[in-house]
Amino acid sequence: MSTEMADLQKLTIGKAINLGLRRAMEEDPKVLIMGEDVGKLGGVFRITDGLQKDFGEQRVLDTPLAESGIIGTAVGLAVRGFRPVCEIQFEGFIFPGFDQIVSQVAKLHYRTQGKVKMPIVIRVPFGGGIGAVEHHSESPESLFAHIPGLKVVSVSNAVDAYWGIQQAIKADDPILFFEPKKLYHSGAMKAEIDVDGTPDPLFESRVVREGTTATVVAYGPSVKVALDAATAAEDEGKSLEVIDLRTLSPLDLGPVFESVRKTGRLIALSEAPSESSLTSEIAARVQQECFYSLEAPVLRVTGFDTPYPPAKLEEHYLPDLDRVLHAVDRSLAW
Description:
Residues 11-186 form the Transketolase-like pyrimidine-binding domain. This protein is of the alpha/beta class and 334 residues long. The chain contains 13 helices and 14 strands.
């Protein structure tokens, strides 16, 4: 491990992913990074900054602007024993590679009865809040969580970002790794990381704030909104329990069920549109498992069922603290 890594104490999410990638590449020469502008530029968000300089152009590859080609090449590399990490520059650019992901990446392990593994990580900066143009602020994670054969992870903090990217790279299953782009370089999201510590299991959700009045479940960029809402609710005498899903497929809803049996109320929070979404699945599963514990219907606070709006309107589109608190009030009034 480099001296630079050992000396660091507080990291942003972006820096944590960068150092997680660096450590994975140091430990395994079969780990490759590929994507548009990931090399000399270091990625548009500078997440891969310095990696090509230190590991060379054979391991950090600048690709053509062709997502289908990036994913298709990664499939071939995985078959030959490599562990490719693909960066999709913005989540809205992933759809030219959707066929490769759904038809090949998700299926080859199953189709070959386990003989061919697909240790591919597809990094996806996602979500809004950066004032970007069309195709740069979307939340398509539910589409991939629906596909058998894929695992979907969404980190919300620097600790999970650092360890999660390494755990994903070591996995033999294909993993889509959704990263909250608006929080990449947020000083408020810095965290101390013990680089020699033991990470939590990748596919488990976590209670990040305990409470008794109502449960709020979120993931990715929405976790910060949930935590801010919990702090604000405390001033009103309400105690919100906040759960970070961390992984979207497989869903670990055990802690959610346990929390709802305690609070009797659930608000599911996400930037994605509400229809046929992860919040839909959470609501269905909770009413199935916790029906007799619920004091009110499961409420959802989400983006609207419209295409993502122009940047000047996104503050009205994205779920915020006030919308979460309003949902809590509605639940309590039931």
